[in-house]
Amino acid sequence: MTEFHTYETNGQAIYDESFATIRREANLGRFTKDEEVVAVRMIHAAGMVGLEEHVVFSDGMAKAARAALAAGAPILCDAYMVSEGITRPRLAANNEVICTLRDERVPGMAKEMGNTRSAAALELWRDKLEGSVVAIGNAPTALFHLLNMLKDPSCPRPAAIIGCPVGFVGAMESKDALMEDLPVPSMIVKGRLGGSAITVAAVNALASWKE
Amino acid sequence: MTEFHTYETNGQAIYDESFATIRREANLGRFTKDEEVVAVRMIHAAGMVGLEEHVVFSDGMAKAARAALAAGAPILCDAYMVSEGITRPRLAANNEVICTLRDERVPGMAKEMGNTRSAAALELWRDKLEGSVVAIGNAPTALFHLLNMLKDPSCPRPAAIIGCPVGFVGAMESKDALMEDLPVPSMIVKGRLGGSAITVAAVNALASWKE
């Protein structure tokens, strides 16, 4: 007789047990309540207790990002894996979720700028940037380019930046630069770790308290 | 005077340096050449040397998946973050990339099955399953349900399964079950680690040798 696998099939029960496990195992004591739920969801997305050691919020970032999202801030993403992952029902203000990477102007702009398409795509954010929440989960060049755009005092200011590019070249450096410049309230995952899943988790946690 | 950040802006140079760093730091000796490039790209996506310790291929999986993709196998994904991340120009046979999670039938099917939407969505894969490459990067329930579908000898067989669901409830167990059942050539990341970025990296590496 065939033995079928048995397993937990209730989505909410899976979330509840996952989040309880994370809260049992992770070192969350240094986070405010606003930050803690974000760190927990990021650990959940990565499947990695210990990630919290690398998560850094500037003072008030979580509150600022929540307020902006609640007020309808657009969410500007550097990659489609980020924009696709954001759970639309968690966006109470039906916020726009924007990724400009596949805009037909981007390849030409990248060539002209001598930069990556990920960086060039941000030039198309300018008219949405004021008061937005920026979610960079892939490209260090995008985060570096954003910081250089914000060196210009006339560049519109986002309400908050989630800076979680991943990898081995520029990721650590771009995130350190973000926290040093701190043009607006920001959060990062220090070092090489980061990526779209972690970034999406941060947006989803800041958009809604629902677990 | 404003100091702009300077950083590597050449995409290919960033890849080259990243992959060289990974090959210097990671323990890749136990992989075949077919597997090594997959493990390297997965480490790259995760920003995590050490991930390779958890990567397991069944004998011949990498070859089987490459052959299937080269021959035009559809790629069946459990989440849009997976299907969106797959780099289309790497698919030499213009392979279909399919995610059925948002099909309007799924919520009703999930309710009837008493399972998650992620698991229910796989029932809509049946007519594409034969010879496909399956990429599960999110939901343990999807992987468990696939294994139960494949208990039926009349269920069509994929050519290969990439089983990398992530998290704290069922992820480890579903991946262990995949390698124990081994219905077709398969690969996993053991334990809690996994996720869409790592899964996409595996697909992209199996689709093209280009680094």
UniProtKB/TrEMBL annotation, chains A, B:
Isomerase listed as a keyword: yes
EC number: 5.4.99.61
Listed pathway(s): Cofactor biosynthesis; adenosylcobalamin biosynthesis
Stretches assigned to the Cobalamin biosynthesis precorrin-8X methylmutase CobH/CbiC domain: 14-208
Gene Ontology terms for molecular function: precorrin-8X methylmutase activity
Keyword annotations: Cobalamin biosynthesis, Isomerase
Tagged with keyword Glycoprotein: no
GO biological process: cobalamin biosynthetic process
Enzyme class: isomerase
Transmembrane stretches, start-end: none
Pfam families: CbiC
Highest taxon in the source lineage: Bacteria
Family: Belongs to the CobH/CbiC family.
Database matches in PANTHER family: COBALT-PRECORRIN-8 METHYLMUTASE
Name under which the protein is recorded: Precorrin-8X methylmutase
